[in-house]
Amino acid sequence: MNHKPVEGFSKLTKQGKIEWLVTEYLEGNEEYQNILKQYWNDNADLQKLHEEFSENTISNFYMPYGIAPNFLIDGKLLALPMAVEESSVVAAASKAAKFWIDKGGFKTTIINTEKLGHTHFIFNVESHKLQHFFNFKLKKKLFEATESITANMRNRGGGILDIKLVDKTSEMAHYYQLKASFDTVDSMGANFINSCLEQFGKTLKEEVAKDEDFTQEEKDSLQVVMNILSNFTPDCIVRAEVSCKIEDLKDDSGISNEEFARKFKQAVTIAEIEPFRATTHNKGVMNGVDAVVIATGNDFRATEACAHAYAARDGQYRSLTHCTTDNGVFRFWIDLPISVGVVGGLTNLHPLVKFSLALLGKPSAQELMSILAVSGLAQNFGALRSLVTTGIQKGHMKMHLFNILNQMGATEEEKQHFVTYFKDKTVTHHEVINEFNRLRGQ
């Protein structure tokens, strides 16, 4: 090994962790300590708060926090907070919001809010025998055993909706599931769901152990493998859509409204049938979704996993968005499975998360679902609009220009020169380098 393993790293002080890293991995270069420390917050209490969100923290990692205004959603005008490092995401979302503001804006519908979790277990017993035990004995016991866990959630209008026994023995020997559905109201509900499921596992073992219908050999075969929520929530879903007469599309790219609608629908159809395109297409959708998910303190990894599983639910990976142009009407929509919360987790701790939720009018979890679906739809509309008209690179590279100039140490005056220089040209890295060298006489 080229480095020595470390014992008790988590028990070192923050400074101790930094000194060990710099000595062991960075040749003792003090400049790396300075880099880490310049991102510490001057407010010691706020810095400590951020450090306690995770483990072994030594600094903060900044991400741009931007605003996309002019979103008319279900009759309410909102400005969306977006935490994202990728150029053009906020600009594209804002442009799409402005495009639809005088055409009725975005409309949303909550289709369902059901979340899922499973107790996965192995049990060498005949299926019909287990099914009888579940129907007439176990199911009632599972509800009773979790009453203390679910009390607060039930008082808020949520709780366990149903519990089913699922036979998976055709796919894996002796494999069964207790599949439970939940309503977690305004919380994402991961801890609540997992607590219920862990109790399911305990109750399952207890009830099997004392049931006289099972032989001792059958009882000994029971193994509770794991109790865990699923981030795939195909029945926790929201629809967001926009529509207008094709004659009112009024795109400013120079092509007719009819041509724009035709090309746009073709682009969506390609993403519906071609996985290579659908992957990039849906990545663009998630640019918009994730930026607001992060800004509101929710789990973007869960959001991503669920969306992509849903996109492949029929066995082929497909577009999350859809388009029709029937009877002279352009309609564009998304059905997005998404599980988010506005209470618990970071929502009550992270100052910028609290700011984001206040900015959005302190939405319910369902209202936040709607906002996230709209953000994804708007981002996708902006990307497709560019792709079928001017092309994606013109906008992307103009946004990327400042990244290149910052890397080269350009002054503010030089940056303004480049904005003017590329006003009627396509930005390329090669051309930026050439003009930068010419400007500085190199």
From TrEMBL:
<dbReference type="InterPro" id="IPR004553">
    <property type="entry name" value="HMG_CoA_Rdtase_bac-typ"/>
</dbReference>
<dbReference type="Pfam" id="PF00368">
    <property type="entry name" value="HMG-CoA_red"/>
</dbReference>
<comment type="similarity">
    <text>Belongs to the HMG-CoA reductase family.</text>
</comment>
<dbReference type="GO" id="GO:0015936">
    <property type="term" value="P:coenzyme A metabolic process"/>
</dbReference>
<dbReference type="GO" id="GO:0140643">
    <property type="term" value="F:hydroxymethylglutaryl-CoA reductase (NADH) activity"/>
</dbReference>
<protein>
    <recommendedName>
        <fullName>3-hydroxy-3-methylglutaryl coenzyme A reductase</fullName>
        <ecNumber>1.1.1.88</ecNumber>
    </recommendedName>
</protein>
<dbReference type="InterPro" id="IPR002202">
    <property type="entry name" value="HMG_CoA_Rdtase"/>
</dbReference>
<dbReference type="GO" id="GO:0004420">
    <property type="term" value="F:hydroxymethylglutaryl-CoA reductase (NADPH) activity"/>
</dbReference>
<dbReference type="InterPro" id="IPR023074">
    <property type="entry name" value="HMG_CoA_Rdtase_cat_sf"/>
</dbReference>
<dbReference type="InterPro" id="IPR009023">
    <property type="entry name" value="HMG_CoA_Rdtase_NAD(P)-bd_sf"/>
</dbReference>
<comment type="pathway">
    <text>Metabolic intermediate metabolism; (R)-mevalonate degradation; (S)-3-hydroxy-3-methylglutaryl-CoA from (R)-mevalonate: step 1/1.</text>
</comment>
<keyword id="KW-0520">NAD</keyword>
<dbReference type="InterPro" id="IPR009029">
    <property type="entry name" value="HMG_CoA_Rdtase_sub-bd_dom_sf"/>
</dbReference>
<keyword id="KW-0560">Oxidoreductase</keyword>
